[in-house]
UniProtKB/TrEMBL annotation:
It comes from the Eukaryota. This is Checkpoint protein. Its main location: nucleus. The keyword Calcium does not apply. Keywords: Nucleus. It is found in: Nucleus. Transmembrane segments: none annotated. Belongs to the HUS1 family. GO terms for biological process: double-strand break repair via homologous recombination; meiotic DNA integrity checkpoint signaling; mitotic DNA replication checkpoint signaling; mitotic intra-S DNA damage checkpoint signaling; nucleotide-excision repair; telomere maintenance.
Length: 292
């Protein structure tokens, strides 16, 4: 089992860490020759599940993965550990990573090269402790299936603007309701014995969903009730400076959020030129729905 690479996008990795750290303390990184995935999966506990899938060249050069089984390596680690290392890596002139073992425990070694004020080179080694996930366990880690076609899908307003609104509503209620229709209207509301509050956003865009033709009245709303804390955690994706965020609601059943990213824009100047047809990086978040 081997893995080594040069990190050409420490800023992008740091932004991913900033986002995932708000969703949960640990994350799974799955690497193969063709893809790099970050997965926040929950077996039993409730909360957001997040899936980010991208091309290796969005983060790495000189990328090499070898594994006797399926050519894939799956590992888990604490997000905060990656957050601290990538903060240092942004100041380095060169970053090399290797999969190693010490005292029979696996870890990712980070070799950070930098220059001091006098122009002299300075090397630093950091270690990211990991747990290797075997293929049998990984077989049970799957993205939640869509239970039905969404009734509404809408482009959200700027998530950096939504976050303080969600934080304010969280201070007033443990749960909130998201509502949207196919006529460009999105609502966040709370209702309790103490108060009623509603934030309304209009003239938003309803993107076309391939193979799906809405059948209900465009002014009819679909609703989901979720934990206020989950919405605030999700909106930490503002760190990623997303191009678009699509909210897909299946009425009173399911909520999926699709965050469209331009991770490649944070690459260092040494990064290779990317093919024109490179798939766009998307973070998919599945948020639990609660019932009264």
């Amino acid at each position: 089992m081997r893995f080594k690479a040069s990190v050409n996008n420490p800023i992008g990795l740091h932004k991913i860490s900033q986002t995932l750290e708000k969703i949960g303390p640990t994350v799974i990184m799955s690497i193969s020759q063709d893809t790099v995935s970050f997965i926040r999966h929950r077996d039993y506990e409730t909360g957001i599940q997040a899936w980010i899938k991208m091309q290796p060249h969005s983060l790495f050069t000189n990328y090499r993965v070898e594994n006797a089984r399926r050519g894939e390596i799956n590992m888990s680690f604490r997000v905060n550990d990656l957050l601290l290392i990538t903060k240092k890596a942004q100041q380095a002139t060169d970053v090399q990573i290797y999969l190693k073992r010490k005292d029979n425990r696996p870890y990712i070694s980070w070799k950070l090269d930098s220059e001091n004020r006098n122009g002299s080179s300075c090397d630093m080694i950091d270690e990211l402790e990991i747990e290797i996930i075997n293929s049998d366990r990984m077989a049970y880690i799957r993205e939640p299936a869509m239970l039905a076609m969404p009734h509404t899908y809408i482009l959200l307003p700027n998530v950096a603007v939504l976050k303080p609104v969600a934080e304010r509503l969280k201070s007033l209620s443990k749960y909130l309701t998201l509502s949207a229709n196919m006529n460009g209207v999105f609502k966040i509301s709370i209702e309790s014995t103490a108060c009623q509050c509603e934030a309304i956003y209009e003239r938003l865009e309803n993107p076309r969903l391939e193979g799906h033709q809405p059948t209900q009245d465009s002014n009819e709303f679909a609703h989901v009730r979720i934990a206020s804390e989950d919405l605030v955690s999700f909106l930490s994706c503002y760190h990623l400076e997303p191009q678009n965020v699509v909210c897909a609601i299946t009425d009173e059943l399911q909520l999926a959020l699709y965050v469209y990213l331009s991770i490649d824009t944070y690459q260092t100047h040494e990064a290779p030129i990317q093919p024109i047809n490179t798939p766009q990086t998307i973070m998919t978040c599945h948020v639990p729905v609660h019932y009264e």
